[in-house]
Design goal:
The complex is a heterodimer.
Chain A: H1 34-64, H2 72-94, H3 100-119, H4 126-129, H5 132-144, H6 149-170, H7 174-241, H8 243-252, H9 260-279, H10 286-300, E1 304-310, H11 318-334, E2 338-346, E3 349-357, E4 371-378, E5 381-389
Parallel strand pairs in A: 1-2
Antiparallel strand pairs in A: 2-3, 3-5, 4-5
Chain B: E1 5-10, H1 14-25, E2 32-38, E3 54-58, E4 60-61, E5 64-65, H2 70-75, E6 79-84, H3 89-97, E7 102-105, H4 109-121, H5 129-137, H6 148-159, H7 163-170, H8 174-189, H9 196-207
Parallel strand pairs in B: 1-2, 1-3, 3-6, 6-7
Antiparallel strand pairs in B: 4-5
Helix pairs in contact in B: 3-5, 5-6, 6-7, 6-8, 7-8, 8-9
The chains are: A alpha+beta, B alpha/beta.
Chain lengths: 391, 237
């Protein structure tokens, strides 16, 4: 998916049709997936590390020292148990974050296998031929990697304690203790370091993803702002032509508010402003809605206005609606006491008519945008019809 | 002077009854005489038929639509003019289909109610703007086929023009405008459920030359609606 694009060219707004901001699509953030992807890559790396360690490291040591074990078959069986635990653990972490039950079940099997393998080793050279301690630790790193760090710490300590307990049982002297501590520092230290490294990378990836998300949000905000600006600019252009000069004249004192002509101009501009605001509304019958908005000012002046519709009305495009409402504003401004506005479905279009006591002929907008305007004056009564055809 | 037309008003709001009574009284020709007012329909059917020519019926009595009561009234020999605040085209159509002579919305009452009562008493068609609106909005497959001229006259009448102005617009006489509108109404009297009031309206329309028996084709497909009948049609605009 691509970033949200503004539906309009903000640099060329149309004065005739202010743009309606399209609904901004919910954020689709390609970069937000980054954190998940990186985390998965780290998980795969850890799986690879543990599997290679178990086969090459532990497996190699097991075969190398096979003559030294009291029962090679038992050690082999423990190695297989550990292999199964690693396989299950790998599947679990590759399918997502495992539950604490399954993570700890795998870890405890590895712990048991490690302790049993140590106990079954010859007492004199237990540490020298121990292949399982490292593997059990790595298995714990694998399944507990994304749980609380203290859980991993406890687990690694338990594994070390298991081995240490066996050693104590076998007999402990200063040399053996030094060997135990050296192995602990080397093996467990490496495991803690890898776990901490992955954690740090997780955090970095999360931060990068957050940054990407906020960048995405900023882009969307900018796109929306551009659309709104374009709509505003279009409205501003529409007002520039008409309302602004009038306000300027009033401010400068060149237009006299007492002059009926100036008052009429004000009324027309007020009606246009209302229509402009109504154009942004999303309503099922926009034409009727805009006619009502256009009629609002005249209604406040005490003109009785009826709006009636006959038949299911077709949807009239924006520019055509504007020609029709322009005619409405012209007629409503000239009406003395009443105006009847009707909308009727006619073959392939709509007939919007006005009957008003204008007293005299009203200048009406020219036919445009597929709207034809006809009128007839009968004494004081003006009849006008704006017909729009979809064909 | 012609004999006065006698009316009964069935209306549950006394203020409306009084308003209607005042319109009747202010008729310069005193052509209508109010003989009875009622707040509901009970007892009206026991009234000797001869004493009431036309019933002005509010379509909503005590919160209930009474359009379904109209066939009973027209079968009993009353002519019904519906007078209602409901201007929904479907209700207007149902009212006419059930045998009411005319439909007058409450907004139209002052200008049209007395005239509609007089037309109903004479079995002549009377088409208010709200009736024209309902006909223009009619989308039912079984609607009668109207000619272009009839449709145009109804449209301009609905839009709010006087019949004289409609005539000028269509380059025809005011009388021909009345013909077109009345003919459209008569075509509707020929469709839907049968009612003595509709038969009477149709018979009078034929007698007055508004419509020819051959033009009454009750269930004509609207696909054939475009062609105007040449017999009565003056040239269009």
């Amino acid at each position: 998916m691509t970033a949200v694009q503004p539906a309009v060219q903000p640099t060329v707004p149309s004065a005739a049709e202010p743009t309606v901001p399209p609904t901004v699509q919910p954020a689709v953030q390609p970069k937000a997936m980054m954190a998940d992807r990186y985390q998965r890559a780290f998980t795969i790396a850890v799986v690879f590390l543990v599997v290679v360690w178990h086969i090459a490291g532990a497996g190699g040591q097991l075969l190398h020292n096979r003559a030294d074990y009291s029962s090679f078959a038992f050690q082999g069986a423990m190695w297989l148990v550990m292999a199964v635990a690693i396989a299950v653990g790998s599947v679990l972490v590759l399918r997502g974050t495992p539950s604490w039950r399954s993570a700890w079940a795998v870890a405890l099997i590895a712990l048991a296998a490690s302790t049993a393998a140590a106990a079954a080793s010859p007492a004199s050279q237990m540490l020298a031929v121990n292949w399982a301690w490292g593997t059990a630790g790595w298995t714990g790193v694998l399944v507990l990697l994304r749980r609380r760090f203290s859980e991993l710490g406890c687990y690694l300590a338990a594994v070390a304690l298991g081995v240490f307990g066996v050693q104590v049982w076998d007999g402990l002297d200063r040399t053996v203790l030094a060997g135990f501590l050296a192995t602990l520092a080397w093996s467990t230290g490496a495991q803690v370091a890898v776990a901490a490294g992955v954690r740090a990378l997780d955090v970095a990836a999360g931060q990068a993803a957050t940054a990407a998300r906020s960048e995405q949000a900023a882009l969307e905000r900018a796109a929306t702002a551009e659309i709104i600006t374009a709509a505003r600019h279009a409205r501003w252009l529409a007002l520039q032509e008409s309302a602004v000069p009038l306000v300027a004249e009033l401010a400068a004192g060149t237009a006299d508010p007492g002059d009926p002509l100036v008052r009429t101009r004000c009324e027309v501009q007020a009606a246009r402003l209302r229509r402009l605001l109504a154009e942004g509304d999303e309503v099922p019958g926009p034409l009727v809605h805009e006619l009502q908005a256009s009629a609002d000012v005249a209604e406040r002046r005490g003109i009785a206005i009826e709006i009636e519709t006959a038949g299911p009305l077709p949807l009239v495009p924006g520019p055509a609606r504007r020609v029709i409402t322009d005619a409405a504003i012209a007629i409503l401004t000239a009406a003395r006491t009443r105006t009847r506005i009707t909308l009727a479905t006619v073959a392939a279009g709509i007939a919007v008519s006005f009957v008003a006591d204008t007293g005299s002929v009203v200048p009406l907008p020219a036919a445009d945008e597929g709207v034809a305007i006809e009128h007839q004056q009968d004494g004081a009564i003006l009849w006008a019809e704006a017909r729009w055809n979809s064909r | 002077m012609e004999q006065q037309v006698t009316v009964a008003i069935v209306e549950d709001h006394p203020v409306v009854t009084e308003g209607v009574a005042s319109w009747i009284q202010s008729d310069p020709g005193q052509r209508v005489r109010l003989v009875r007012t009622a707040r509901d329909l009970t007892g009206l059917l026991d009234e000797p038929r001869a004493t009431v020519d036309v019933v002005i019926l509010d379509l909503e009595l005590s919160g209930e639509l009474v359009t379904a009561q109209i066939p009973g009234l027209v079968t009993a020999g009353f002519r019904v003019v519906a007078f209602s605040g409901h201007s929904d085209p479907l209700i207007v159509m149902e009212t006419l289909d059930n045998g009411a002579h005319a439909y007058v919305s409450k907004e139209e009452g002052r200008d049209h109610l007395v005239e509609a009562v007089l037309a109903a008493a004479a079995d002549r068609p009377y088409v208010t703007r709200s009736q024209a609106r309902a006909i223009l909005a009619d989308q039912r497959p079984a609607r009668p086929a109207l000619s272009e001229q009839e449709r145009q006259a109804l449209l301009l009448w609905f839009q709010g023009m006087s019949k004289a102005s409609v005539g000028r617009r269509m380059s025809i006489s005011e009388n021909t405008v009345r013909q077109y509108i009345s003919r459209a109404r008569a075509k509707y009297a020929a469709t839907g459920r049968s009612a003595p009031s509709k038969d009477a309206l149709l018979a009078r329309a034929i007698e007055d030359g508004v419509i020819k028996p051959g033009e009454i084709v009750p269930y004509k497909s609207f696909a054939s609606a475009a062609a105007d009948h040449p017999s009565l049609g003056a040239p269009g605009r």
